[in-house]
Design brief:
mainly alpha, two-stranded antiparallel sheet
C-alpha cells in the first residue's frame, strides 16, 4: 500500500491509535467522539449539538452515543443546578473511564490514565506504517471484548443483561458478573416474567435517578436473588396490540430540563420537547 500524508502545521488534533482502530466503534461514533475531542477547552457544545453540525440524524446519533457510553468514552449525569433547574452534564474522554473515574474527573479530581497504561519494557520499536491489524488484539487492548456467554449467549436473557445499561446508565455490570446475572435472568423468564416486568421489578429497587449506585453488579445480584411472582398476562386483540406497539415506537424522550424523571411524549414533527416544556 502506498501512502501520501502531509503533516499539518496547525489546527489539528492528536488522536490515539486505539481510537482510530477501535473494533467496536462505528464511523458515526468515531466522528462524534473526535469532533468533541477537537473542540477548544472552553467549548460547551452538547453531543446532540455536535451531531447536528456533523450531519448525523437522530437514529445515527443515538446509536453512536450508545456505543460511546458502552465503551466508557462518554458519561452523563442528570444533576440539579444552583437555581434548582435540572440539567444534563456530559463528559467526553479520549480514554475509557469507569464510572468512579468519570465522577472524579467531573468533580475536578486527578485525571485517569488509560487502563494498562504502564510503559512497556524494552526499547521502543518503529511503528509499521500503512498496515491494518489483521484481527482484534483482544487481551492487548484496554477494552477487551466481553467473554462469550454459556450456551451461545444469544438468547433473550443475555440480550436483557447486555442492554440493561441503556435502561439506566448507572447499571454498568462488571464483565466477570455477566454470566452469573444471565443465569439469574433466565430463571426469572422461566417463571413467566417478561423483559418489561423484570425491568419494572429492578427499577423499583433502584435509588432516585440522581442517586449514585456504588456496586451495580451487587445490587442486581441482590434484586434477582428472590424471584417474585410474574404479573398476569393480559392478551390484547392483534389490531390493538399492533396499534400500541406502533404508538410506543414513535415516542421519544423529552430533552427539556423540567422533568425529574425521563418523560416520553408523542411528537407531531421533529420537536424534541414535550408540550409542557414548549409552553
Amino acid at each position: 500500500m502506498l501512502r501520501h500524508a502531509i503533516s499539518p502545521t496547525g489546527s489539528f488534533s492528536q488522536v490515539p491509535n486505539h481510537l482510530i482502530r477501535h473494533p467496536r466503534l462505528s464511523a458515526d461514533a468515531l466522528r462524534l467522539l473526535l469532533w468533541q475531542l477537537s473542540l477548544p477547552a472552553d467549548a460547551r457544545d452538547s453531543l446532540s449539538r455536535t451531531a447536528e453540525k456533523a450531519g448525523l440524524g437522530k437514529c445515527a446519533f443515538l446509536r453512536a452515543k450508545r456505543q460511546l457510553k458502552a465503551e466508557g468514552l462518554v458519561h452523563e449525569w442528570r444533576m440539579q443546578g444552583e437555581r434548582g433547574r435540572w440539567e444534563t452534564v456530559q463528559l467526553v474522554s479520549g480514554v475509557p473511564l469507569s464510572a468512579e473515574e468519570a465522577i472524579a474527573v467531573r468533580d475536578g479530581g486527578p485525571r485517569a490514565e488509560p487502563a494498562g497504561a504502564a510503559p512497556a519494557a524494552g526499547e521502543p520499536t518503529r511503528p509499521e506504517v500503512g498496515r491494518h491489524p489483521g484481527e482484534d488484539p483482544g487481551g492487548n487492548t484496554s477494552n477487551p471484548p466481553a467473554p462469550p456467554e454459556p450456551g451461545g449467549g444469544d438468547d433473550e436473557a443475555a440480550q436483557f443483561v447486555a442492554g440493561i445499561s441503556e435502561l439506566d446508565s448507572r447499571l454498568r455490570i462488571p464483565r466477570a458478573m455477566v454470566a452469573e446475572l444471565v443465569g439469574r435472568v433466565r430463571e426469572w423468564f422461566a417463571h413467566g416474567h417478561t423483559a418489561h416486568s423484570l425491568w419494572q421489578c429492578i427499577r423499583r429497587q433502584l435509588p432516585g435517578r440522581t442517586g449514585w449506585i456504588e456496586r451495580p453488579g451487587g445490587l442486581l445480584r441482590y434484586v434477582l436473588a428472590e424471584i417474585q411472582p410474574a404479573p398476569p398476562v393480559v392478551r390484547a386483540a392483534p389490531e390493538a396490540r399492533a396499534a400500541s406497539v406502533s404508538r410506543v415506537a414513535r415516542m421519544r424522550e423529552c430533552e427539556g430540563e423540567r422533568h425529574v424523571q425521563a418523560t416520553l411524549f408523542l411528537p407531531v414533527g421533529d420537536e424534541e420537547l414535550c408540550g409542557r416544556c414548549r409552553a
